[in-house]
Amino acid sequence: MNRTEAIRAISDRSTKWDCLVIGGGATGLGTAVEAAARGLKTLLVERFDFAQGTSSRSTKLAHGGVRYLEQGNITLVRAALRERGLMLQNAPHLVHALQFVIPAYHLWQLPFYGVGLKIYDFLSGKLSLGHSKVLSRSETLNHLPTLETRGLKGGILYMDGQFDDSRLAISLALTFWDLGGTIANYVEVVDLTKQNGKVSGAIVRDRETSSEHEVAAKIVVNATGVFVDAVRRLDEPDARKLLAVSQGAHLVLPREFLPSRSALMIPKTSDGRVLFGIPWHDRLIIGTTDHEVPEPIAEPTIQEDEIHFMLTESAKYFDRDPSESDVLSCYVGLRPLVRAGEGSSTAALSRDHTVIVSTSGLITITGGKWTTYRHMAEDCIDHVCDVGGVARSPSRTTNLPLHGSSKAPEIFSPPEHLAVYGAEREKVTLLAASNGFGELVHPRLPYLRAEVLWAVREEMARTVEDVLSRRTRALLLDSAAAVEAAPWVAELLAAELGRDQSWQADQVKQFCELARSYQIRPSA
What is the rounded CA–CA span in Å between residue 118 and residue 111? Predict the structure, then answer.
């Protein structure tokens, strides 16, 4: 991807796009890929970086949703399980099967959860990842060796999927580019344009240069996640609020708390939610919470009660109680939940997606979850074709391999983490072999200096945060180490982008300020 080339295309006023997609998260990227795959001339713009919001701050699960099964939402679970299978098929370098174990401390839990998970197996159909089964006490401890043993009766094992969210987002962006799409980060829609009462495009601002461009498009898609209401108000200033926004927080702990390839699933916490303990990139993620927030913000922060809740609930299941001092990083994502009336808690709201067409022709897609991004995109582009008067062509994304798609070996060496680049990992390895770029950016992080260069040259990274938060996952894996790596990254970025010392200093300062929100402040 080349941002300079993209800005040049955006500034060409003679171009009329078939589809302008606003938003570079999972929904927007999936929608852009779907549109380009069907032959539509498509532009995507994102006011921050790709997946900078919720789409890089998920629980990292490609799943059908066991708790949605308990709620009786069979349709959602079945659709999500199908999409889970397609994710593994189309992006095997980023999505893989993962064993989950529900520990049972009461004998009745074994048949109760066992039967429910057999239904889960059945709904996955031909795209099943494997069958669930009841485990003995010793088998349960083999999978979860640090589990609390007092009162343990056994467990239930089932299969689900896991992925790297921001890396999948970058893969989608690159796939879109490969399909002939035009895409740019740090380009903000500041207004919509209209002709005869119909949306005809947008005014966009390049946030790096502050230059503005008028973009003409037959159809505009609002795929801005928790910010869709703000874009809808550009179209209709008095538009009714569509979303309830829910906050989900996560803690990242050292691997020692669960040195296993299997994940822990706690089916019912004290507030009735599901809680996970998930191995990810040699760390353990604990999450998540569900609290309604009044308005969406770009950088939500974890709350004290969320920290206390996750540490307290997870301590019931580990033989060593985690404390605040053990937390390497914490992060928060916001969920766009479509309101189903007044008075519902966010935990009770549906995770289904919604497509809305305004009287002016603006198409808004929101809701859903990462796992169903492709299904959401297919539905959205069907609406685009209908509104734009274009004959619907069949979706091509069901069996479309994403950029980098590779049947990578389970263990890639050296080093293993480069497997996320899929078919391009050898190019990254070759880059690392030249000019000392094989050195680590920090001794507590697996990432190489070559990956910083790759992120700038091939993946449109523009800032230290882009590199350390989303092209690599350094900020999530160890926020303190990421802060210490920031000056090195800024120096490499400046050399690639032609920036001066002042820019470097400002980048490091901004990143350090951001990283503080990923760190737990010591209790007074």
Answer: 10
- Beta-bridged to residue 246, according to DSSP, are 292, 335
pLDDT at 519 over 60: yes
Do 154 and 261 belong together in one domain? yes
Vertex 175: Cα angle to 174 and 181 (nearest 5): 85
Cβ distance 252 to 476 under 8 Å? yes
What is the residue range of 381's domain?
A: 3-54+167-240+351-388
Within a domain: 524: no
What does the pLDDT look like over 250-285, one tens digit per residue? Answer: 999 999 999 999 999 999 898 888 999 999 999 999
The domain boundary residue, chosen from 315, 331, 346:
346
Would you state the pLDDT for residue 341?
46
pLDDT surpassing 90 at residue 72: no
As a whole number of angstroms, the distance between CA 251 and CA 307 comes to 8
d(CA 200, CA 192) in angstroms, rounded, equals 8
Per the domain annotation, does 477 fall within a domain? Answer: yes
407 inside domain: no
d(CA 171, CA 175): 6
- Model pTM above 0.90: yes
**Does residue 399 sit within a domain?**
no
Q: Output the six-digit token pair for 43.
A: 């532009």
The count of structural domains within the chain is 3
Report pLDDT for 347.
Answer: 47
